[in-house]
Each structure stands twice: as C-alpha cells, then as structure tokens.
Amino acid sequence: MIRARCARCAELVENLQGLFSGLFRFTPSASAFSLPPSPARLHRGVTRCPLKTTPTDEPCFAGFSVEGRETETEQLSTAKTGLARIDFARRRVNRSLDTETLLAVLRGRSPRFFELAEVIGKWVWIQFEQKQPPAVTRTLAELGFHWNYARQSWQHPCGTIVQERASYDPRRRYGSYFAADVVRI
To answer: How many structural domains comprise the chain?
Structure first.
C-alpha cells in the first residue's frame, strides 16, 4: 500500500489505485517497491503537494523565501546594469591576429596589458595577481583572449587553434619571454 503525507494526496492515491487495479489485474506487493511514487507525478498539475511540513507533519504552504532576496524570476528579468557588452565580431577578428600584430595592438591600445604580456611559443599569456574588474575582463575578451582556469591566465592563441589541451608545460617546450623586455632595434 502506498502511503501519502497529506490527506489530499492519500485520497488521490486511493482513487488511482482503484482505477489501475481494474485495468491491470496485477497488484504489486509492498516489498516490490521500496519507495512510494512522487506525489508530483500523481497530481499531474491538479493540486500541489507541500514540500515542507511542520514538526507535527502538517503541511506548510508558506513560500520558501528569505527576506531581502529576489526570486529566480526577478533575478532573470532584471538586466545587469553597468556591464558593457563584448563586441564578438571584433573578438573573432582579434583571435586570428598573429603574435607580432597582437603585441602591436596591445602596445598601442592598452600599454598596461603589454607590460604583462608573456609570449610562450606563438601564444600570448597575461596573468594577474588578483581577480580583475569586469571592464578588464571585457577588454581582454574583446582583444581575443580566453580564460584558462587550469593555468589561471588569460591566453591568446594568435591564430593557432589547438584541438586538445597540452599535457606538458608550454613554457619549458617553447620558452617564454615578456614582450616589454624585448627591445626592437
């Protein structure tokens, strides 16, 4: 016999068992199923079984809300203000730049990034000590960089797209240097 937590659920379960017992001439024993079916499956949208009960096992229909918090719908409906959008057309173009061209763009448009740029093989990496504000993140993304969580750095492939991640340390295999340290004659 299936047990239900609230009276409405119990009544619905009894009605459904009577309906199905006539259709299937098979009545499962109590040991055949270890868990009762979900009340949500039994109701099919007609009524709602409470998820929260009081210590006396009475249903509590109060909403699950925390004071001062928005509901999920309110969170989704409000646009995040103050965040500028990334120009993905510019990002696509910048991702195909070769190393020298990217370094020239960094030197001209954002000298601070140029000072931090480390060239490893054909790739350019930029690492920060701490998390950067959204404006810096947006600028790096627009320049064609992507965040590598495993290496904790912003990386630019400079036109070379690799299908799988390297299992070795690229600095050891290809060598590295900081672009600001190299002086062109």
So the answer is: 2
Q: Mind listing the pLDDT tens digit of every residue in the chain (185 residues)?
A: 555 566 766 777 777 766 666 555 555 555 554 556 655 555 554 444 555 556 666 666 555 555 566 666 666 655 555 567 888 999 999 999 999 999 999 999 999 999 999 999 999 999 999 998 999 999 999 999 999 998 899 999 998 877 777 788 888 888 999 988 885 64
* Contact assessment for residue 114 and residue 107, using Cβ atoms and an 8 Å cutoff: yes
* Of 77, 104, 122, the domain-final residue: 77
Rounded to two decimals, the pTM is: 0.54
| Count of H-run helices and E-run strands, the chain | 8, 5
Q: How far is the C-alpha of 127 from the C-alpha of 140, rounded, in Å?
A: 11
Task: Provide the β-strand partners of residue 53.
Answer: 59
- Domain with 164, as residue range(s), is 88-181
What single-letter amino acid sits at 167?
S
136 shares a domain with 111:
yes
Same-domain pairing of 127 and 71: no
